[in-house]
Amino acid sequence: MCILIAGLGLSAWIWQRAGAQAQLSGYVVIDGVAYPQRLEDTKAYNRRMEAFGGKGLVLAEKLEAWFSGLGRSRGFAGGVALVTLGLGGGLFLARPARAGDDEADKRAG
Prior knowledge:
There is one protein chain. The protein has about 110 residues and is mostly helical. The protein has two domains: about 1-20 and about 70-95; about 20-70, no CATH class. Helices cover about 70% and strands about 10% of the residues. The protein is built from four helices and two strands. Strands 1-2 form a two-stranded antiparallel ribbon. A hairpin with a 2-residue loop joins strand 1 and strand 2 (about 35-40). Helix 1 (about 1-15) runs antiparallel to helix 3 (about 75-95). The relative contact order is 0.16.
């Protein structure tokens, strides 16, 4: 029961936080339509990062952004809820039988 409460609570918290927007550095205009652009997606930012720390730093920054983005995804929140329900249901079905359960089953059958 504690697993269900903790897991579903975590899922609800992630779902609620999912609306957070990243910092925008500006807009890119393509065919007259303005699209928001994050600072991390600009070529200048990536060139500066590569000059400072090499390709490893660029890769590490992208990996960190991916991990931090998981906490802001409603799909991830749904996945946490499904895993929690599966784990809770599996543990419920796999619980050990109590001593009185066998006698009640014999009488009913």
